[in-house]
């Protein structure tokens, strides 16, 4: 390599810690795909300017690959930064391939097909205490999904995910209602119920106190009054 890294005051941070903390919503390229990158392909990284505050915490920008050696990509920045004056489009950079968050092969190139990775973007209602990790999932049930509303990017899964009674009462005191979020956001906080996620509409489970296992129960019928 030529010794080029990044301009002073600019860095590319390792995304693997974020991916480890948010494994169900922050996806990284599969190693077999990164291993197939070569000149003419592009890879995406999160750039930060460290010597002053900028409009955004970081900018996701593409690097056009010129050469790969010893686990690093030597290439040129293929974006015009929005608010990062220390670096401009066309700047030569050298960045670790392990820090890539996305990639695209050159037009016409057929790369390897990585193993399928399931994603969890369908929506659910969940108590705030679970998302804030003040409670683990205590019980959950699956209703018929609501019709997609204007602005929803993904469909309702029908799952309704509740915390402990004490934590729900604390949410009420705080004025924090249940939130409508991706299933993956809940799994990032507590994935102990993952094996139940494909249960059908009408399924309901409660956590058993002594073992912590989820056991099925019959939901109470709705009152006619």
Radius of gyration: 23 Å
- Tell me, rounded to a whole number, the average pLDDT: 93
* Beta-strand residue percentage: 25-35%
Helix content: 10-25%
User: What profile does the largest beta sheet have?
Assistant: 6 strands, antiparallel
Distance between the termini: 75 Å
The number of distinct β-strands equals 12
Number of helices: 5
Class per helix and strand makeup: alpha+beta
Low-confidence stretches: none
Looking at the structure, what is the overall shape?
Answer: elongated
Order of helices and strands: EHHEEEEEEHEEHEHEE
What topology emerges from the helices and strands here?
Elements: E1 10-12, H1 16-21, H2 31-35, E2 42-49, E3 59-69, E4 72-77, E5 92-96, E6 102-104, E7 123-126, H3 128-131, E8 139-142, E9 156-162, H4 165-174, E10 179-182, H5 183-189, E11 204-207, E12 214-216
């Amino acid at each position: 390599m030529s010794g080029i890294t990044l301009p002073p005051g600019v860095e590319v941070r390792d995304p693997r810690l974020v991916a480890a903390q948010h494994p169900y919503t922050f996806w990284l390229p599969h190693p077999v795909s990164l291993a197939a990158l070569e000149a003419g392909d592009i890879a995406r990284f999160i750039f930060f300017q460290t010597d002053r505050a900028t409009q955004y915490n970081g900018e996701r920008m593409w690097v056009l690959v010129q050469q790969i050696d010893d686990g690093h990509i030597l290439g040129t920045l293929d974006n015009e930064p929005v608010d990062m004056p220390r670096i401009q489009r066309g700047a030569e950079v050298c960045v670790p391939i392990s820090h890539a968050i996305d990639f695209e092969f050159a037009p016409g190139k057929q790369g390897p097909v990585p193993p399928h990775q399931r994603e969890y973007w369908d929506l659910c209602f969940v108590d705030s205490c679970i998302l804030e990790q003040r409670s683990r999932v205590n019980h959950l049930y699956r209703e018929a999904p609501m019709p997609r509303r204007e602005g929803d990017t993904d469909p309702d899964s029908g799952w309704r995910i509740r915390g402990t009674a004490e934590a729900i009462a604390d949410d009420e005191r705080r004025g924090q209602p249940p939130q409508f979020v991706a299933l993956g956001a809940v799994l990032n906080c507590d994935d102990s119920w993952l094996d139940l996620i494909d249960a059908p509409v009408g399924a309901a489970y409660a956590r058993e106190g002594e073992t912590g296992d989820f056991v099925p129960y019959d939901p109470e019928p709705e009152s006619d009054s």
